[in-house]
Each structure stands twice: as C-alpha cells, then as structure tokens.
Amino acid sequence: MLPMRQGSPGGTGKIIFIGSAGLHGTGRLVMRSIESLYRKEEGKILIEIKLGSIPQLFNTFDPAPFYEKELDRDAETYIVDTVNDFHAKTQFKIVIYLPPEAAASEQGQKIGEAVHNHFAYRTLVMERKLRNRIRYGRFTLLLGLSFLLVSLVAGSYLLSVSNTLVTQLAADALLITGWAAMWEPVTVLLYQLWPILKTRNQYRKISAMEIDVRPSPK
C-alpha cells in the first residue's frame, strides 16, 4: 500500500497526497527505495493527488480567475518535493482524482491548464529573482575588486614610504579588509545562485508536465 498524507482542507473534505513526498514533515522513516513508493505509468512516476472537490486544489483567498488561481500551498509543496526526490531526468505525470461529476465538469478539464499556469508564473518569478541576484553579484564583485585594488595600492604606498612595524600592520590590515570586501560577491555568485537556479528548473519542468484528471476510484 502506498503511503498517504492528508493536506489542509481547501473545500469539502481534505486533500490526500499519495507517495513518499506525502510523508515529508511527518517524522516517519521509510526504509524503502523512493521509487518503490510511487506508481508508474508509461515509464513515468505518478504524482497523485486525491480531492473531494476542485476548490481544494487552490488558494481560496486568491481572487484571480479559476485558470489563473494560485495552488494550495500543501499541494504545491507536495508536487515540488516529489520532483526533488528524484534525479533531474526523471519523467513524471501528475494525476488528480476528483469525484466523477467534478472530473467531467468544464472546470475539472481545465485543472491541467491552471496547474501549468501556476508553475509557469513561479518560473517567471524565479527567473526575475535570478536576474536580480546576478545583477547584484556583478555590482558587489566590481565594488569588491575596486576596494581590494585600492587596499593593495594603499598598502604598497605605506610600505614604500616607511617600512616600520606600524606601517606593516597598517598594510596588512588594508589587505585583509580588501579581501573581506570580496566575501559578499563570492557568496552571491558561488553559493546563492544555484538554489535559485535549481528551483527555477524544477518549476519549469512541472509547468510542462503531463496532467491527467480522473474520476476517483471507488
């Protein structure tokens, strides 16, 4: 039996998440391979969500039209966590189970478009964040290099004027301060960009996933 977890209620009943990612945050240790905890279909890992009603999948406070609504936070987290459990090249299919009448309705058939729109928007947000961090990283790099150059020149000048213990200490202090100014650009460009890039790629992948809306099995 596949593990399941109930999410927050967003309408009638609760969202039921099926698979390993549904256990995230529950404190339960699963001593099995991740892949064995998910069903497969046509070689794709199924990300399965069972709903009692269509509004459960969405943020009910979002006034946007149905197909542009923000997803429920638990549902988004479950989908992203599932993708994060697997290798980047793994193929997925999102399967959403609804009561038969809801699955056959016009809104039920547009759920795929709504999910795609949500993650496409998330992709744009992360791309903007990535551009802003790159721009900031370049600015801090230019600033840091300029300050380091000034520190080196000033230290060399002090030593050329008077090579005493005091001037040596001052030159060393300037050198240390100059390298310290490089900490921020190094942090931004080497460490802060990659998590943003990874999240952007995950959202982009989800925004293009196959999504199937099916009647809930009896």
Give a brief rundown of this model:
With 218 residues, the chain is an alpha/beta fold. The protein contains six helices and six strands, in the order E-E-E-E-H-E-H-H-H-H-H-E. Helix 4 runs antiparallel to helix 5 and helix 4 runs antiparallel to helix 6.
Features:
218 residues, alpha/beta, six-stranded mixed β-sheet
Task: Tell me what the structure shows.
The protein is of the alpha/beta class and 218 residues long. It folds into two domains: 4-120 and 205-215, no CATH class; 122-201. It is 51% helix and 13% strand. The protein is built from six helices and six strands. Strands 1, 2, 3, 4, 5 and 6 form a six-stranded mixed β-sheet that branches. β4, α1 (73-84) and β5 form a beta-alpha-beta unit. α4 runs antiparallel to α5 (165-180) and α4 packs antiparallel against α6 (183-207). The longest helix has 51 residues, at 111-161.
Global mean pLDDT: 86
Query: Can you tell me the residue ranges where pLDDT is under 50 for at least 5 consecutive residues?
Result: 26-31
Structural class: alpha/beta
What Rg is obtained from the alpha carbons, in whole angstroms?
A: 26 Å
Number of alpha- plus pi-helical segments? 6
Helix content: 40-55%
Q: Secondary-structure blueprint of this entry?
A:
Elements: E1 4-6, E2 16-18, E3 40-41, E4 44-50, H1 73-84, E5 92-98, H2 100-103, H3 106-109, H4 111-161, H5 165-180, H6 183-207, E6 210-215
Parallel strand pairs: 4-5, 5-6
Antiparallel strand pairs: 1-2, 2-4, 3-4
